[in-house]
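TODO from last week: model Glycosyl transferase, group 2 family protein.
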Amino acid sequence: MKRIQPYETPKRWRLHHRAPQHFIPLQQLSAATRPSEWCSLGTQPVFQLRGQLPLAGWNMLEIACECDKSGIVATLVLETSRQSITVDFPLRMGKITKRLVYVPYGVERMTLTPVNTECTFSYSHFRFVWLTPRFAYNRLFQRLTNMHQHYRDLPLAEVKQSLQQQARKQSRKWQTIALEDYDSTFISMSTRRHYQRWIHQVERRRGPSEQDAKERCQFACSVLLINGSFSATDVATFKKGLSHSLASLAEQSLFPRQALLLITPAVHQQLHSWLAEWMRELPFLEVKESEAQSVAAQRLEALTYCEHPWVWFLRLGDRLADNALFHSASIAHDNPQAQVLVADEDSLDEDGVRHSPQFKPAFNSDMLLSMPYVGRAVCYKRAFLPRLTVQSDAGSAANADWLDYSQVLSVMRRADFTPDMLAHIPHVAYHGVPETASASYVSLVQQHLDQLGAGAKVSEGLLPGTQRVRWPMPEPKPLVTLLVPTRDGVNILRPCVNAILERTDYTHFELLILDNQSSCAKTLAYLKDVEARDARVKVLHWNHSFNYSAINNFGAANAKGSIIGLINNDIEPMEGTWLTEMVEQVSRPEIGCVGAKLYYPNGTVQHGGVILGLGGLAGHAHRFFQRDEDGYMGRLKVTQNLSAVTAACLLVRKSVFDEVNGLNETDLAVAYNDVDLCIKVREAGYRNLWTPYAALYHHESVSRGADDTPEKRARWLSEYAYMRNAWGELLDSDPAYNPNLTLVHEDFSLR
């Protein structure tokens, strides 16, 4: 068997460090063309690991993997004569993944499933580091308080106290419970691979009690079954689809007050007896004959028979989830100002199996302009609908997806519209049969924006069925002040500044290099040179101890531009239009902070926006995804509103920056100041925005670790505590995210 050494053994050996010397392929593995690379030929490739087995007790397992796919999970199996221990852990590409493992005495065999899919991969680092129990427990408690919902924000001493209380009640060791809870924070439940498991383990435990349903029985709702264009020859298809839809109404925990079916006279005649049986089973079912052909015309006619304030449209073959009306009633009760309820949804395959869940954000205006993310799971106040349907009938009236999108956009055009009119139902309430082809909505969104007088131009987006909206550039073009803090490190600074100067089509900017006590002769020489050769560059000196917030506030106070750009000194534009896109977006009066799509040098995503609550406080969406991946619901390739974006590349109007008093230099000298700024801007009434059409490299080290000195860690803990105290409720309920998605991983997996 072929043997490999995945990395070089350290020259200075440490006795508590153990690493296998040989990775022996057992199954579904073949050598790739490049040295140390392997091809996984299935979902369960297996290595046997030999040499330097880990010491018994607590160990930190460290792995670095490179792979051409994201969402990779590895599995380690430790075997003794009495037991077999399995450890799963997701891998981050280009980053050392660390996790605690308790190694029992007498390990005789160790195997590794390095990846869980067909791909090409390599391991550059693999070792066990033996830990003292005290150190291991500290790391374990720290992860629980950051990542586990039951221990969130508890002091470490209280985490241990909680575990000991559980142990007494369960007559178990607290260490065993702690390790189980710790292990659960590494489980990544993919929306693709683990959705059925999530349905059985999570969703089904959330159903309402009979008492809950009774409390919501005042919710008066009509379900209008719209069949599209069916002739007498489509009766078999019509009957099959209708039976699925009617069955879903029969299974509701809260029944509708009315269900109305429009049907052609010819089909009605053929199915009269069959429909009569359904009407006996569903007393609220009504059947009306209609000659209307288009979906829009059918909806308009159906509304004339509608008797109740709320309306669900249900397409032939689609199903309402068992608790759809109950959840609609609950959200309507809690949001009395809501006129439209948008629920999560999924799709049905040919066998009726649910897949592809769409866990949506709360109302997201710019995402809605980019794609019809609201889908079919929409419940309307009846008073809104007649006007919407009449307007929509002028377009692609036979396309139900087009019509759904048009109706929601029409809500946004109302003179009295506020975001509170659209409420989100964070439950899967609708199961739909997918359309065979994706429609183009460019003309629909263009018409919508023209009616608003926005002056924007709409074109096809990066994915089918999505749009790019180009907003008008103000005249005269605004001056942008780019703030680049730095200290020495000319090898990092030079390519950043040179790339901005040479690779930016929008030339009306000044670049302020904020020098924080540089002493390197080469750096000082470069600063002098670049300032002399380009009139747009000016070097300002900040002769104080490092404080990121204070340095940038100092730069903003000296900015001449009406737009401020916070730029890290390790940023490099990938194309010339990045600043044009960001200026167009940030110039909109309703927009606050604008962020860009950032990549690591290896081409994986570094920043797809910031999601509040990830990792306990905030994390980067889709981090370590591959360059060409679409992201969850296509969100890596559409413009959208997010609660926060990173200040590694952030634009904001100077008036907005000043309105919220800039960055917090007192409490957030180093970390989280950009998240705090974005939240303050959002609380002031502006929408923050992330765009994939501004792409840059961020040369932040992908293996960069946590704060590694007691002083740095104390500072980080202080800043973390400030953010939790200041914004705790918001950090746990990001409206740009979804409560069914994880707060542990950046991959939009299931919670």
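Done. The radius of gyration is 29 Å.
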